[in-house]
Amino acid sequence: MKFIFGKTLICRSLEVATSLARSSHLDCITLDGDQVSHKGSLTGGYFDTRRSRLELHKSHTTLMKDIAEQKQKLDTLHEKLNDVEQQINQIVSEMQRAETKNSKNKDTFDKMKTDIRLLKDELAAIEKSRQPKERSLVSHESNLSSMESLQESLKSELQQDLLTHLSVQDQQEVDRLNDEIRQLTVKNKEAFSRRMQLEGQKNKLENLLNNNLCRRRDELEAALQEISVEDRRQKLDSERQEMSVISNRIEAVNEQMRTLDDNIDAMARRQKELQLEIEKKKSDERDTIDRINEDSKDLDKITSKNSMLGKKIDECMRKIRELGTLPADAEMKYNNLSLKQLYKKLESCNKELQKYSHVNKKALDQYLDFSEKKERLMQRKGDLDDSHKSIIDLMNALEQRKYEAIQLTFRQVSMFFSEVFKKLVPNGRASLDMKVDDSMHNHQKNNENYSTPAIDNFTGVSIRVSFTGSNAEMKDMQQLSGGQKSLVALAFIFAIQKCDPAPFYLFDEIDQALDPQHRRAVADMICELKKDAQFITTTFRPELLEKADKFYGVKFRNRVSHIEVVTKEEAQDFVEDDQQQT
Fold first, then answer.
1. What end-to-end distance do the CA atoms of the chain give, in Å?
2. Between 3.40.50.2300, 3.40.190.10, 3.30.70.1620, 3.30.450.150, what CATH number should domain 1-47 receive?
3. What is the SS3 assignment for 94?
4. What's the confidence (pLDDT) of residue 393?
5. Highest-confidence range of 9-13, 377-381, 539-543, by mean pLDDT?
6. Residue 42 backbone zone (phi > 0: left; psi -120 to 50: alpha; other: beta)
7. Which of 532, 534, 543, 476 shows the shortest CA–CA distance to 509?
8. Coiled-coil regions in this chain (predicted)?
9. 209-213, 243-247, 399-403: which range is least confident on average?
10. Which end of the chain has fewer CB within 10 Å, C or N?
11. Burial class (CB in 10 A: 0-12, 13-18, 19+), 176
């Protein structure tokens, strides 16, 4: 036993690890990674050879190359995309300009149509109001002419000297008529002025209609008819303007290129001058570096000498500390002495010290050092004891849980085993007992400090059955026949299935050594348990076929076995033929 880490041994093989785990009660691990617990559990190491680092590195290199290629393709596509986007932007800008121009023309056309409609409405309103005004003007003219004739007649009458011959009533009538004449004269003048205003407005509107609006209407209609031709002309003019602008830009770019060429030549000359200056600076730098190297060598020598002196000083100080505590007046006492005097005193002191050469001068320091180490070790021991106690408590708790789980599982399996065996053998009885090491059990009873049951005390499981009756003597497995052992094993498997069911079970000729009665009982039990699991059996007896749901026949053709789905009748015929042949 050479290599042990904590409570784990490193072993050469799995067999050595198993034996040492049993004998030394320590956990073991092999070089292949297999772990063996002193409790009895095994854990296998595993290394996936498919996950090779070389393969991962190769795949990583390949993926990085692919990523670089894809990045390059992506950059190319980005450049193409930028070119396409520039072309699209140019086309969109041209479309926007055309749409803007079209919208402006459309707005102008709509505005002109609105103006024409308003002018037509205004003209229609004027025409509508002109006729009644003309009629009123004619009536006013006729009234005016009648009044003028009446005025003339009245004037002629006024020239006659009739007032003296008129009565008072006639005189009043004359005055009234004169007043009416004056009023009618004023109204006539107002009607004439109104007539003149209306005629002026009429002439003005007729001039506006004939000179401006009609001509503008004709111009707009002609513009609407020729708008496509005008657009093409405008587009041609705009293209020519753009060509001239581009030509101007090309000339400007050429001028800039010539300027840049001149600048490049100047920069090249400047670069040559700077290159010469750089070479000169580099030579100066090399000279400076050489001087620095020489100074560094001198500095290294001084530093090494200084370090040697520092070591000597440290050594002297260490020796002074080893002497113990110096007197308070030591520095004042020896500070003014010369080096020769100090050497003489040192020599005399060494002679005195030779008398005490057998005394251990480091005893006190060693005692203090060992005392501190002891305190640290005791503190560490206390921590380790606490950790050990907590680990032992955890292990005892886990052992208790494991013990309770084993007891619970054993009781369930024992109960189901008795029930299943009773169904398979109605007149029989069976019991399942746990075997315990007597020596360990007695040692456990004598040890009062033992609080947790040891699972290592369990050495196995004993099965005792009776096939002849409840009062008959129960037998061990060694005393049973082959068929009885098979039946007991099936009962034990069915009991475990009830306790911890598996998805499916595969039975290979389990009824070979059973009699027909027990075969039927096994078939009934499988039929009862098939609700929670799937049972696949191979048989040469007809009893298991009665309760089966699916049948497969195995045939041997051309030295190869073939499995085919068959019916229940075909399976029974096959079994009967096999029994007749045997």
1. 61
2. 3.30.70.1620
3. helix
4. 92
5. 377-381
6. beta
7. 543
8. 67-129, 167-284, 339-366
9. 209-213
10. C
11. exposed
